[in-house]
Amino acid sequence: MNWFVITMFLIAFIMIGLMTGLVIQQAHADYFEAINLRFIDNPNVCIFEPEYDEDYFNNETVYPIFSGIKEWETTLEKSTKGDWYIPIYVYQWEDHIDKVVHDYLDCQIIVSFEQTNDGSRVGYSALGYTYFDHSWSKHKYAHIVIFTETIRVNQVIDIGNIQDKDEIVINLQTERIPSSDIHHIMKHEFGHAVGLLHHYNSDISDEKRSVMDSSFKSFTDYYMPIQPRDVHVMVQLYGEDGWANPNPIIIPKKIETMEWFIPLIDVIDLRVLLQ
Description:
- There is one protein chain.
- By secondary structure, this protein is of the alpha/beta class.
- It is 30% helix and 17% strand.
- The chain contains five helices and ten strands.
- It has a five-stranded mixed sheet with strand order 3-2-4-6-5.
- Helix 2 (54-80) crosses helix 4.
- The longest helix is centred in the N-terminal third of the chain and has 27 residues, at 54-80.
- Mean pLDDT is 82; it is low at 4-27 and 261-275.
């Protein structure tokens, strides 16, 4: 009898230890914040050519936009074998010049472009933003806006010797945002459009661990692939089967990454076991 009591005590102690370990790890896990919405079918993405720099857009901008979206699709499909297909349509400027957004009822995610950020909608340092319009019941959509030019930050300017009462005027010129940055901006904003906010590090460090981190250093040929934690958070929102039903019953507003639970994605074979 004594051995039975001792054995049961040890089992209970081990179980409590495991439960405590899980709580501790989750309490200190990195996390995503999420929007209280999601799509219930494969979202159609409509890319609208801007009225300026049409040739540059078609030669240099469409591909990084397209590849940023398709990287989500490819990684999610290879990771979960679910249906993550994302239809993409491109509309030339002359095809939408006299149209309004509700002329495109089949577009659930709209991508448009502005040349520079004047600070009227988001902070001057933003390279893109996403907003949602559910004001018309027949057509609810997410709208991604990407800026194609910006002022390069951290520029070093040599103004020579300054004398008293000298007037100094510095005119900073905008530069085209490179294709690698457009790719990352698209990847990040698409995450917003399908229901994610930002990723946060539990240690409050600046280390980049997700494509949903709130910032990156532009003009550095920056590239980060979709991370295992990005796959994990999408599965929490939509399930392993992809966009369509059945979806998880609850849309959480905070999702812990549980990085200790998710194996790293192999760059050759993206298959990830999520259970």
